[in-house]
Amino acid sequence: MLLLYACFVSLIIFDDVVAYNFPYEGIQLSDSDVANNPDIAFGKLPGGVNAHCKTFPGDSNWPSVDRWNVLNASLEGALLRVVPPAAACYSGIYEDATKCALVRQGSRSTNFVKGVFHPVYALINSFRNTGHDYLGRNTRGGALKVYVHRLKAFEYLPSTKIGNYQGKAARVGAALEQYELFPHMEENNITMLAPGSSTVGAYGGYMQGGGFSYITSKFGLMADQVLALEVVTADGRFVHADPENNKDLFWTVRGGGPSE
Ligand SMILES: Cc1cc2nc3c(=O)[nH]c(=O)nc-3n(C[C@H](O)[C@H](O)[C@H](O)COP(=O)(O)OP(=O)(O)OC[C@H]3O[C@@H](n4cnc5c(N)ncnc54)[C@H](O)[C@@H]3O)c2cc1C
């Protein structure tokens, strides 16, 4: 078995033609989306918005159903309106004793609890992969949740060259969990760093905060294994970062993240 100095995700660019790693990376906010929807823009807030105040459901300036529908169209229908399962246990329109009993039963399962038990968590997330952040930094009041948990793609690369590295690597989706890496390792006869717990994401908060593995004493941190990144920046752009392109972003993501 060889250590795989894995890339997070690599992007190949030939003569200005961008080849995406995985098909879902091709679904991006476009200039025509922005032109068709005054609610969204690249790189700046729309005029008249006080950045210190956040809008919540029920506020007068909360977007109408029509405006949500336009946003949803620009996202190719990916927008979900979440009703947290645990809402069944709280007084209100979703209160339901039967569903609440199921929620209480599910609360004994780690997989259930980490994602959905507390209604507030499901309502106000800003960015969520597996939901293992000890300090709840995947939550923000008055924010949309960007849910990357389904980005599970994996591709083994027997030979690749990025920066000074040449050798085996892999393209990986941001949401692969520890237990999902082992079948890929076995199939390709390789070793990759992974978190100690089965459902922690290997390339989300773990990688961004360094990432200690059982084999770190021998092979180093997860952040050291990354060869290249595809990143959606806060201004809405999809960019490539590696040792030679967007160097500052490449350096920042690998350790500037939220881990413990
Ligand atoms: C049971 C358990 C075991 C653990 N074991 C280990 C271990 O062995 N080694 C170790 O080093 N750490 C370990 N940790 C800590 C773990 O690495 C961190 O909690 C990490 O932040 C979890 O990341 P996540 O993506 O799985 O979870 P999430 O809570 O979904 O994300 C964590 C943070 O990263 C952000 N984030 C996630 N994905 C992305 C993304 N694609 N882009 C931008 N931001 C993103 C989220 O907004 C959030 O703030 C463990 C934690 C738990 C709860």
From TrEMBL:
<feature type="domain" description="FAD linked oxidase N-terminal">
    <location>
        <begin position="127"/>
        <end position="241"/>
    </location>
</feature>
<keyword id="KW-0560">Oxidoreductase</keyword>
<dbReference type="GO" id="GO:0016491">
    <property type="term" value="F:oxidoreductase activity"/>
</dbReference>
<comment type="similarity">
    <text>Belongs to the oxygen-dependent FAD-linked oxidoreductase family.</text>
</comment>
<dbReference type="GO" id="GO:0050660">
    <property type="term" value="F:flavin adenine dinucleotide binding"/>
</dbReference>
<keyword id="KW-0285">Flavoprotein</keyword>
<dbReference type="InterPro" id="IPR050416">
    <property type="entry name" value="FAD-linked_Oxidoreductase"/>
</dbReference>
<dbReference type="InterPro" id="IPR006094">
    <property type="entry name" value="Oxid_FAD_bind_N"/>
</dbReference>
<dbReference type="InterPro" id="IPR036318">
    <property type="entry name" value="FAD-bd_PCMH-like_sf"/>
</dbReference>
<dbReference type="InterPro" id="IPR016169">
    <property type="entry name" value="FAD-bd_PCMH_sub2"/>
</dbReference>
<protein>
    <submittedName>
        <fullName>FAD-binding domain-containing protein</fullName>
    </submittedName>
</protein>
<dbReference type="Pfam" id="PF01565">
    <property type="entry name" value="FAD_binding_4"/>
</dbReference>
<keyword id="KW-0732">Signal</keyword>
<keyword id="KW-0274">FAD</keyword>
<feature type="signal peptide">
    <location>
        <begin position="1"/>
        <end position="19"/>
    </location>
</feature>
